[in-house]
Design a protein that fits this description.
Distance between the termini: 42 Å
Strand order of the largest sheet: 3-2-1-4-5-6
Number of strands: 6
CATH class: Alpha Beta
CATH topology: Rossmann fold
Order of helices and strands: HHHHEHEHEEHEHE
Number of domains: 1
Radius of gyration: 16 Å
Largest sheet: 6 strands, parallel
Shape: globular
């Protein structure tokens, strides 16, 4: 079975039919929720205080619901209009932004207390348009994400590159701000494998709350 990233660009693959699956598939909903819960834990947010969180590749807002349940406010960004339409139909509380994450985060500096992303960053490892340079798009994404975080803010990003050569194009640790913790991959190749916690991708990032 071909991976979604090999079938079509994300704004094409995640059409109305694909988006609808996130309304009815119990397994997809459960996995997304579990991964979002783990990502929020890794942000080490202050207890008892609502925070403003960015959800990169928010899709239909499933991760946003986890943030809402924890008492946080959130903004979601996604390239698929159909996925965002479903999120609006579900009446999620977060603000939704239609944007290609490879073009950078369109937010002012220091606006977010943290950021999460579930199964989205791997799309940036593919060149699905003429003139797209995955390395440049990844670097722009990480740099702009860092700027959008407040001082001391963290990002927990779960992704699953197809192979080692895909993950090698991620920016070198020396070029990444220490506030951004990229985590992945979270799943083995088997589609039926149970979800498990993300493992650190970059050792220089803190692995526990302090």
């Amino acid at each position: 079975m071909s991976r979604p990233e090999e079938v079509a660009p994300p704004e094409v693959f995640y059409d109305a039919t694909e988006a609808g699956k996130y309304l009815h598939s119990t397994r997809m909903i459960d996995v997304q929720s579990q991964m979002a819960e783990r990502a929020v834990e890794m942000l080490c947010l202050p207890e008892g205080r609502p925070c403003m969180i960015l959800d990169v590749g928010c899709g239909t807002g499933l991760s946003g619901e986890t943030l809402e349940e924890d008492g946080h406010q959130w903004v979601g960004i996604d390239i698929s209009r159909d996925m965002l339409d479903v999120a609006q139909d579900r009446e999620v509380e977060g603000d939704l932004v239609h944007q290609d994450m490879g073009l950078g985060m369109p937010f002012r500096e220091g606006v977010f207390d943290g950021a999460i992303s579930i199964s989205a960053i791997q799309w940036l490892c593919y060149s699905d348009r003429n003139g797209y340079d995955p390395r440049k798009r990844l670097l722009l994404f990480f740099q702009s994400l860092y700027k959008s975080l407040r001082r001391g803010g963290r990002a927990a990003l779960q992704f699953y590159p197809q192979a080692r050569h895909r993950s090698r194009i991620l920016p070198h640790p020396a070029t990444l701000p220490t506030a951004v913790a990229a985590h992945g991959p979270a799943y083995p190749a088997a589609a039926c494998a149970p979800p498990r916690a993300p493992r650190p991708y970059r050792r220089r990032m803190p692995s526990s709350c302090s």
